[in-house]
Specification:
By secondary structure, this protein is mainly beta. The chain has 6 domains: 5-217, 3-Layer(aba) Sandwich (Collagenase (Catalytic Domain)), CATH 3.40.390.10; 354-457, Immunoglobulins (Immunoglobulin-like); 468-545, Immunoglobulin-like (Sandwich), CATH 2.60.40; 559-644, Immunoglobulin-like; 657-737, Immunoglobulins (Immunoglobulin-like, Sandwich); 743-841, Sandwich (Immunoglobulin-like), CATH 2.60.40.10. 8% of the residues lie in helices and 41% in strands. Helix 2 crosses helix 3. The chain is globular and about 85 Å long. The structure holds zinc ion. Residues 15, 175, 179, 185 line the site of zinc ion.
Length: 842
């Protein structure tokens, strides 16, 4: 074990001191203090996490003080929603899931996880986060890393000043989760920027820079191939400058940032294809209370010694200009690296302007991030920052412009406002896009670039005037009335999304999240342009009070079976409750400990849940309370689950399955042969005879030590219980069985069947008969279908349902491009992909 005490505590100290402080940057180690500098990040080890999922656990004591109208249930729902923001990044393979409440007196946990706790902090400090325990240096195909084994997110025990319903609390929570996942502060006004320049909102909680940062640590397939890179060096008089920030910024709004290595070399990866200005700037000097510039934790060498922060230099655009209109616009292409984007900079004592924060005026009060509605409203922002204001007026010689020119700074602007703030007015041509606008401040022959200084929009922020339950008791729907709501608006009750069912004349008809009677939820609206109803309603947001009619009064305890599990296994558990208890919403299960985590759960009946759970090998002997949460309600469970020490190595069915018949399919379906790993299954147990049940059927099984194989009978689709009896032991797991994929029944050319002896030739007109491509009789447009021979796409010109048949379609296509040789032919209709049909191209 390697304890990053220095990192964690430095970070901790920095964050809680950063009450009013400022691509992404990771927690980095360099093996050597001399070039070449190959960075080693700290990150979660996907190979060591069940289902590539890191669970977070919330301390059940909660904060000592909440805002008078807040509640622990509301707070937990907002923390869960914040974690989901990172979970939902499609280009990242890391998943984040709620693991339940942890009792304050719980023993130390064996597995990996994130602990969300509430603790004393300096007044005004809301939260901090970061890794707390690292494993030993680990190699992987994508490079070496230090595996994060435990991380912490700490909220102030006094949250009176920051209600959990506020956008500010939510964005703080998203930010701290970012730290816990391995991200440091970045300089692109993204969620991982400090609060000074952060310009994301609850309605658009991540910027491109955040997405690049997380996706580079945990890249999903093809992420790197689908994004471009920029590399170069920042130097002054030939001497490389480390920890300088380089930003790729597009006039359309995207900004992605990376910091230089100790020798001044840099590389920005994960850049969406497009055209960018690129600039190099120094990290802002540490603000009062910050321990380092932008509270960045400096990279360390093998001995744990940090690399130094550099002195300041003048900001420049590539290729070495201060006027963005003279700067180069460079094109970044997917899968390619733009090399040699070098900067030769001039040292200075400190930047003329830095740490600029901006506010908009969507209604009577100022709001950060700044949004400017160019279709009415006040077309200005207020700005404060070091060097910006002198004697209550703009610093003499200060000029401001909008990078790229989609908006323009109005004449006679900036202008004086208050002792600390100036006002900047804007104009823009009609039809200019809704996007972030970047500002360039120029003063004393230095410039300061503020990405996403404001967001240009065409509509006011949404607002909610009334939330009225509708429907029979128990009412399960509500009409949300207000202004600037549309079918694209998201409605939240506290941190729980209320699905929009329909736009109705009065507003939006939504499903009502489950909550107990007496719960008071703050109802917010989030629009796709990034604005939320809190922009205009924060002092008195819309609320909904659940009563006997709308609340769920269910009090009967749920039962879990089995309720005794040994450490070091996976198994199915069944949770049952009174009639109808799970009929509305999707419950979340948690044991409050990384010793026992839920891998996946299915509601199979209104009173029954099946779940696969993982019990960590080192789990302590203990009883863990099971919690079932649906929406804003926690359901009581009698007993909980008792963990027994891992004495004997018990055989168990794992969730690691493979489709042997069709290795290219991740799914399991009837008719295919599946292999399930059964760790600890011995030759003696196999020799004594196995019995396998799949659903209600007894199924023939073949086995080798550690694995069974069987042909999936015609069950499902849906969750199916697999039970194995081996030498007196019984084990079970839930196997998700999918529908049988589309199936190519025949291929023919001019009436002659095609098989591996009658090959295909270029220009052949082929008729295919396929089952399961769509509903019986459904017509499918030829341009929706893809016919592939290997990876080569053929030309489809006719698709017709075969009359009177059950879900058969006839397809005609021309062999237009196929390399000679054997290849599988597949037919795809959207996500439906047929089983492969082997063909030979001559
Ligand atoms: Zn931070």
């Amino acid at each position: 074990m390697r304890v990053p005490s220095k990192l964690a505590f430095t970070l901790a100290a920095a964050l809680w001191l950063a009450g009013s402080a400022s691509a992404y940057y990771h927690f980095l180690h360099y093996p050597s203090r001399v070039a070449p500098f190959v960075p080693i990040p700290e990150k979660w080890d996907l190979a060591a996490l069940p289902n590539k999922t890191v669970h977070f656990f919330i301390a059940d004591n909660g904060p000592e003080k909440l805002s008078p109208t807040d509640s622990l249930a509301s707070l937990i729902s907002q923390i869960r929603a914040a974690a989901k923001v990172w979970n939902d990044v499609e280009t990242s393979d890391l998943r984040i899931a709620y693991g339940g409440l942890t009792p304050a007196n719980a023993p130390a946990q064996a597995g990996q996880g994130i602990d969300v706790v509430f603790d004393e902090m300096a007044p005004g400090i809301v939260a901090l986060g970061g890794p707390t325990k690292l494993g030993d240096l680990t190699g992987s195909s994508s490079g070496a890393f230090y595996p994060i084994q435990r991380a912490i997110i700490k909220f102030n025990i006094d949250l009176t000043q920051r209600p959990s319903s506020s956008d500010a609390f939510f964005m703080t929570a998203v930010h701290e989760f970012g730290h816990a996942l391995g991200l440091q502060h970045s300089m692109a006004s993204a969620t991982m920027s400090t609060e000074v320049t952060r310009a994301t909102s609850k309605a658009r909680p991540l910027a491109a820079d955040d997405i690049a940062g997380i996706s580079l640590l945990y890249p999903a397939a093809n992420f790197l191939a689908k994004h471009g890179s920029i590399s170069g060096r920042v130097a002054s008089a030939g001497v490389g400058i480390g920890l300088a920030s380089v930003v790729a910024i597009s006039a359309g709004g995207t900004a992605i940032n990376a910091l230089t290595h100790p020798d001044g070399s840099y590389r920005i990866d994960g850049v969406p294809a497009g055209t960018y200005y690129i600039y190099a700037h120094p990290l802002p000097p540490a603000l009062q209370g910050e321990l380092s510039p932008a509270n960045i934790v400096a990279p360390v060498d093998n001995a744990g010694q940090p690399f130094p922060f550099p002195s300041s230099f003048e900001t420049v655009f590539y290729p070495g200009v201060k006027d963005w209109q003279l700067a180069a616009q460079l094109t970044v292409a997917a899968g390619q690296t733009l090399e040699g984007v070098n900067f030769n900079v001039q040292r200075n004592a400190r930047p003329a302007v830095y740490a600029v924060q901006t506010y908009g005026y969507p209604s009577a009060y100022s709001v950060k991030p700044a949004y400017v509605n160019f279709n009415g409203g006040r077309q200005l922002i207020a700005a404060a920052g070091v060097g910006l204001v002198v004697n209550g007026a703009p610093a003499p010689g200060l000029t401001v412009s909008v990078l790229g020119g989609a908006s323009a700074v109005a004449p006679n602007s900036p202008r004086a406002f208050t002792a600390d703030y100036i006002l900047i007015d804007f104009v823009q041509p009609p039809g200019a896009p809704e996007s972030p606008r970047h500002l360039v401040f120029s003063l004393n022959n230095d410039i300061y670039v503020l990405p996403a200084a404001f967001h240009a929009v065409q509509r006011p922020a949404p607002s909610i005037t009334a939330v009225t339950p509708v429907g029979d008791s128990p009412a399960r729907r509500a009409v949300v009335e207000g202004a600037n709501l549309s079918a694209q608006t998201q409605i939240f009750f506290d941190g729980v999304p209320a699905a929009v069912i329909d736009a109705v004349p009065q507003g939006l008809l939504v499903s009502l999240p489950v909550a107990p009677p007496g719960h008071r939820a703050v109802v917010t609206a989030l629009n796709p342009d990034g604005q939320t109803s809190m922009f205009v309603q924060a002092p008195s947001p819309a609320t909904f009070a659940y009563d006997a009619q709308t609340g769920s009064a269910e009090t009967a305890a749920l039962a879990v079976s089995p309720n005794i599990v040994p450490a070091g296994i996976e198994t199915m558990v069944e949770i049952t409750g009174s009639a109808g208890v799970f009929s509305n919403g999707i419950p979340v299960l948690g044991f409050g400990s990384s010793d026992v985590v839920v891998q996946r759960a299915w509601v199979v009946a209104p009173n029954r849940i099946l779940a696969n759970i993982y019990v960590a090998p080192g789990a302590a002997s203990q009883t863990l309370p099971l919690q079932v949460v649906n929406g804003l309600k926690s359901f009581p469970v009698s007993g909980g689950i008792q963990v027994q020490p891992n004495g004997s190595r018990r055989a168990y069915l794992s969730t690691s399955t493979q489709n042997i018949s069709y290795p290219s399919f991740a799914s399991i379906f009837p008719g295919s042969t599946v292999a399930i790993n059964v760790p600890n299954l011995t030759a003696a147990q196999i020799a004594a005879g196995l019995q396998l049940n799949v659903g209600d059927l007894v199924v023939p099984v073949t086995a080798t030590p550690g694995q069974i194989q069987f042909n999936v009978p015609f069950v499902g689709p849906g969750p199916v219980v697999v039970r194995l009896a081996a030498g007196g032991e019984s084990m079970s797991i839930v196997l998700p069985v999918e529908a049988v994929p589309p199936f190519i029944i025949s291929l023919s050319v001019g009436g002659t069947p095609v098989d591996t002896t009658r090959g295909l030739r270029q220009g052949d007109v082929v008729t295919a008969v396929v089952s399961g491509l769509g509903e019986p009789g459904a017509s499918i447009a030829p341009n929706r279908l893809r016919v592939l021979i290997g990876n080569a796409e053929q030309t489809v010109f006719l698709v017709s349902p075969i009359p009177g048949s059950a879900a058969l379609h006839q397809i005609q296509f021309v062999v237009t491009s196929a390399p000679p040789g054997s290849a599988p032919l597949t037919i795809q209709n959207g996500a439906l992909i047929s089983l492969p049909f082997p063909v030979v191209v001559r």
